[in-house]
Model the fold of this input.
Amino acid sequence: MKAYKFYYTPLLQRDKRGKSIYVPKPIINLAINYKKSNPLSFWFLVDSGADHNLFPGYLGDLLNINVKIGVKRIVRGIGNIEIESFFHEGVGIFIEGHKIETNAYFSYQQQIPLLGQNGFFDKCDKVLFNRK
Done:
């Protein structure tokens, strides 16, 4: 795969005292489709700590995926919180026109699309984080 460069996106957050601060996050804008549907553009968090791609259920709905017929799996995250998810193959991620065939778990309890180790990092020759 060819090399692509993405930049950290500063997101507004509040610190412990309620002061507004900008925190850089590895969030990238990509297009996604399911099987042969038209690609839709979304923002994804590149999450090296995520085992798999984990997308919100609403994203599956927008792609016309019948989310709940996927293979059901309980996913555990930070704090050992458990959420119900459904596995689907046939997902395409487009990086500057280059399509990556992959898979993802979809959950109605997930709000942010995560690109994880299995399904994204394993499709790349190299992923380099360079936060200055």
User: Anything to note?
Assistant: The longest helix spans residues 57-62. The first strand starts at residue 9 and ends at 14.
